[in-house]
Each structure stands twice: as structure tokens, then as C-alpha cells.
Amino acid sequence: ELKDNIVFLYLGRIIYRKGLDLLIESFSMLEKSCRNVRLIIIGGPFSSKYKREHSEDYYKYCKNLAAKKSKNITFLGEVAPSLVRNYYHMSDVFVHPHRRYLSKNRIIGEGWGNVVVEAASAGLPCVLTDRVPSAFELVENYKNGIIVDSEDIINNLYDAMKYFVDNRDKINSFGEHSRYMYEKYNDPLKIINSIN
């Protein structure tokens, strides 16, 4: 069923600042203008009890939004860590839509973005916002992914995902370059030599 589709993947915690609702809105626009697109969503709210209580409403909101907006969104929730790699391999493009998030009058960004490292290691092109620090180390625009401006995320994500729909033939070369970028920063010999 996924074979003829371009499969976009979101994998991460489902909390407000990660911007999943914005990706769902953007994908629903894409689905209206393009055939054969799918979005797989994997993740759950925070695991600690306190933070889970404050993120479950957003999780439910996103799940309902996905069901309402699109028939081509598969909302899997949390999956076993041993299965995560399978989902990277069945996907074509990884999307991390982190939003601008204001907390106590300061903009909060993403941490490093380990999921970006995982996606690059799996050879996936990446669509990331400029709020994800690893984007600037692991993504070379229009070589292995697209870094979008977080000012107008919905439209910018749409444009980036549409690029891959319109240029499906570039997905493999972008993916190969993602793997190259991963290896460039994760070469065990370089890491050992940098410590000595």
C-alpha cells in the first residue's frame, strides 16, 4: 500500500513546541494538491507523569486533527524502540516541524534533534525548521533536505514536501547525501582521534 506513495514521517514526542499540528495542517494542504502522499506519525506525550499530564491534551488534539483533516495520515502513537528503524526504512522523507515557541519571554528551540541524526543514518532526506540545531550541521539545503523558515511553517512545510513530490527522482540522491552527512559527523575513528 505504501509502495506507490511518497511517505513522509514524523517521529518524536508529541508536544506543542514540536509543531505536529502545523505539519498535519500542511500535509492536509499537500494531500489536496497531490496524489499518492502519506504521513506516518509516531510518538507519544512526555513520559514523566507531570509532563505527560500537560501534554496529553495536545496529543489528543493532534490525533483528532489528523483524523479530521486527512485520510492519508497514519497516527501510530508510541512504538517499541526495536521497531523504529523499520519505520525509517519504509518512509521516503523525514519531517521535523519544530515551531517558534515562547516561554517566559524567550524563544525556546529544539535540543540537538537526535531524531534528525537517526533519519540521516537511515538515509532519509530531511525537512526541518530553522528551530532545529542539528539542521545546520546535518542538512545541506537541496542536497539532502530542506531547512524551512519557522515564521510561516505551514506554507513553508507545504512547499518543502511538494518539492519532493514534484522531484521524486531526487529522493534517493538526497537520501544518499543524508547518509554521507551522518557518516561525516559520526565516523568512529574521527571521534576517537578528536579525544586523543
Helix content: 40-55%
- Average pLDDT number: 86
Number of helices: 8
Radius of gyration: 16 Å
| Quantity of strands, as a count | 8
The best one-word shape is globular
Detail the poorly predicted runs: none
Q: DSSP strand (E) fraction?
A: 15-25%
The biggest beta sheet reads: 6 strands, parallel
Alpha-beta content class: alpha/beta
Strand line-up of the largest beta sheet: 3-2-1-4-7-8
Order of helices and strands: EHEHEHEEEHEHEHHH
Give the CA-CA distance, first to last residue: 50 Å
Task: Report what the structure shows.
By secondary structure, this protein is of the alpha/beta class. It is built from eight helices and eight strands; from the N terminus they run E-H-E-H-E-H-E-E-E-H-E-H-E-H-H-H. Helices cover 47% and strands 18% of the residues. Strands 3-2-1-4-7-8 form a six-stranded parallel beta sheet, sandwiched between helices. It has a two-stranded antiparallel sheet with strand order 5-6. The radius of gyration is 16 Å and the shape is globular.
Entry summary:
The protein is α/β, with parallel strands linked by helices. The chain contains eight helices and eight strands.
Features:
8 helices, 8 strands, 196 residues, two-stranded antiparallel ribbon, alpha/beta
